[in-house]
Design brief:
Helix 6 crosses helix 7. The chain starts with a helix and ends with a helix. It is an alpha+beta fold.
């Protein structure tokens, strides 16, 4: 009988104990981690002797869990994404002894360049589904075809070819150890700018993961411009194409005539 009374008393007290854990007006939402980033420069000037460069990104974390931070549960991915534009991939095949373009596929609004650094391999950082959902990583950039693609059986082939060409040309790059924590809450990331980096407004993006889950992200614009004679040539080619073409032909004639005089054998 005493045991039954004790159990009934305990059951009556449980709601009161549960209610004591919440106070009216007290927020139950956990404080979210914060992320701030800054670049070593806001503008990259491309000159005639530009052979590529390294861009340094500095970042700070706030409201982090010190225990999770100490055991390495926080990861950072930093990306420099170039201007977006449609890109066409063509496949050559040999027809009657001549290599010709037989098939092609255009992908909508893909970054012209993509340089990524991370605190470790992104495949070890989170799930492939999470990377695909966020479009993080060379293998997870959305490549959406434009127009009719038939049964889609060759879609993977063209996507792989696009990534291979971009990496071979130096436009797409990744560094799985390019992000380093210089203190408990501060990190530094290095991104490689290729020598043929496209002109225009690029975007620096930083992603913060906690235990494999994306918690926040931050972005900054970065302007890449050509200066000096390169900019004059680019402006002439786009603004005065006929005059630019005539000048190019005239320069080629003069160069050829001069070379014939120098190397003439009399």
């Amino acid at each position: 009988m005493r045991l039954l009374v004790a159990i009934m008393t305990l059951l009556c007290l449980l709601p009161a104990v549960a209610g004591a854990q919440w106070l009216p007006g007290q927020s139950t939402e956990a404080v979210r981690e914060g992320l701030e980033i800054g670049t070593s420069t806001s503008e990259i000037a491309i000159t005639s002797d530009f052979h590529g460069a390294d861009l340094t990104i500095f970042g700070a974390l706030s409201n982090t869990d010190q225990l999770l931070l100490a055991i390495g549960q926080y990861d950072v991915v930093v990306v420099l994404e170039g201007p977006r534009q449609d890109a066409t991939v063509r496949k050559k095949e040999r027809v009657f002894g001549i290599w010709v373009n037989t098939r092609s596929m255009t992908f909508e609004s893909v970054p012209h360049s993509y340089s990524m650094s991370s605190s470790r391999m992104i495949d070890d950082l989170t799930t492939p589904l999470e990377l695909t959902d966020q479009g993080i990583g060379i293998d997870h950039i959305p490549l959406t075809p434009v127009g009719f693609v038939g049964d889609g059986s060759n879609l993977g082939e063209f996507r792989d070819a696009f990534r291979r060409l971009q990496q071979g040309g130096g436009f797409y790059d990744r560094n799985p150890s390019g992000v380093r924590f210089v203190s408990s809450n501060l990190f530094k990331a290095s991104l490689r700018l290729p020598a043929n980096i496209p002109n225009g407004v690029h975007t620096v993006r930083a992603y913060l993961f906690k235990s494999g889950i994306l918690v926040t992200e931050e972005s900054l614009p970065l302007r890449v411009i050509k200066t000096g004679i390169e900019q004059m040539i680019t402006d002439a080619a786009h603004g005065q194409p006929i005059l630019y073409g005539c000048a190019s032909v005239l320069l080629a004639l003069i160069t050829g005539w001069g070379a014939s005089l120098i190397f003439r054998k009399d």
